[in-house]
Amino acid sequence: METFSGYRRADGRIGVRNRVAVLPTSVAASAVADRIAADGGPRVTATPHQMGTEQPEPARRRTERVLAGIGRNPNVGGALVVELGTEAAGASAIADEIAAGDTPVETLSIRDAGGTRAAIDRGREAVDALLEEAARARLESADASELVFGVECGGSDATSGIAANPAVGNACDRLVEAGGTSCFSETPEFIGAEHVLAERCVDESVRERLLECVDRRESVADLMGVDLRGTQPTPGNQEGGLTTIEEKSLGAIAKGGTTPIRDVVDYADPLPVGGGLVVMDTPGYDVESVVGKVAGGAQVIAFTTGRGSTTGNPIAPVIKVTGNPQTSDRMATNMDVDASTVLDGESVEAVGERVYETLLSVADGTRTEAERRGMAEFAINELQPRELASLGDPT
Amino acid sequence: MKGVVLDDAAVLLADGDTVATAITDLEAGRTIETEDLPDDRTVLEVAEPIAFGHKLAVTAIDAGEPIAKYGEVIGSATERIEPGEWVHTHNCESNRGRGDLAEGSA
């Protein structure tokens, strides 16, 4: 049986890290959250972001859902929610949702504390207390079937679809076989490949939801009268040999593996444990997409990159996999798995086994290159005006 | 990897594909010799420099015809493409996300 040591949480889920998260509810509290976390050591991480203090109702709900989801991620042993005090998305509402999952949580209002200096002092005290509580978490043996594994690609080139994505897909297949959950996303990168995915959906309802998500993303281009080619594939993708969105998509979907698609969930919605392969409807912007899956409960992320993306995440370790031999060589200190050997004849299955072994090792505590280098990017996907309009009356 | 490596130069990912992906920088004039080419062809001459990861046509493709990779359509040819020529944004365009072609658009 494939096992690792993790932190058992009150709700039964297992964390692969035991972090204290400092969560600002808006851009107005982000610098203070950063300062509070800065002196806390590697176990304390902040999630600064750009959301304003006022957002339209559905956008505000999404911000709250993301932050509450991050706080409830099993890698979090304690959370401090920081507000300026004028936000529509208040700290107490988010803290209540986090506490509902039995995660220790505190709130801090910069205005109530009497300004930023006092807030930083109080925040550090709260973090110290949360670290003590988190330290009581039991480290115990857990099974691979308890892992929720999010997969992502960014900075794609032609090697992504040939080497790195199929190898990560093979690791997804192995985890699903072991009884766990694998989640892939980035709906704009299903355009041109959705017919392949649709055939793999377990039933008509999942199939319809998947195709709806793709239609919605593509119709944004129609609505605006623009041509997706201006942005997809990106100039970097094109330099790397990718010509059309169809080509990029057909390579991108390989990272989800080959098992049936069991469910389609909304951005940052909870991912099931032991759920097989699940699709999340996320944007193509990789940092926001990773955050959506971590808010959904993914404990570990694998991120394929041909051109050499270096991004990580504050809460979940990010395993970097490249299929490009030059990137593997030149950016070795940012890459965890070299999948470029596929181009020399190593089988996708053999590289997939290496990715899977890395997943279990990272779950067991081995730090990824992104963790070692302190890479901890965070961004929330904000609902845009046209998306808000397409949702209709928010009530 | 899935697919067939053509003379250490490029990979043909699926039967019926009309393009192969270079797995090394290819110089103009290089010949790719293999039985695995379509149309009973055994030699393909690289017509122009093709960078690692970029695509070359393994068969003639007429303007407007679909271009296939991974056994799927990745776009359409905007001009006739001869075997051995580079296939990229200058001669292959997407059929999807084309709001510019949507009815009623300027």
From TrEMBL, chain A:
The keyword 4Fe-4S does not apply. It comes from Haloterrigena salina JCM 13891. GO terms for molecular function: lyase activity. Belongs to the UxaA family. InterPro entries: GD_AH_C, GD_AH_second, UxaA_altronate/galactarate_dh. Residues 6-134 form the D-galactarate/Altronate dehydratase second domain. This is Altronate dehydratase. Residues 39-61 are annotated as: Disordered. The lineage of its organism: Archaea, Methanobacteriati, Methanobacteriota, Stenosarchaea group, Halobacteria.
From TrEMBL, chain B:
CDD domains: SAF_AH_GD. Residues 17-93 form the SAF domain. It comes from the Archaea. Coiled coil: none annotated. InterPro entries: SAF (IPR013974), SAF_UxaA/GarD (IPR044144), UxaA_altronate/galactarate_dh (IPR052172). Keywords: Lyase. This is SAF domain protein. The lineage of its organism: Archaea, Methanobacteriati, Methanobacteriota, Stenosarchaea group, Halobacteria.
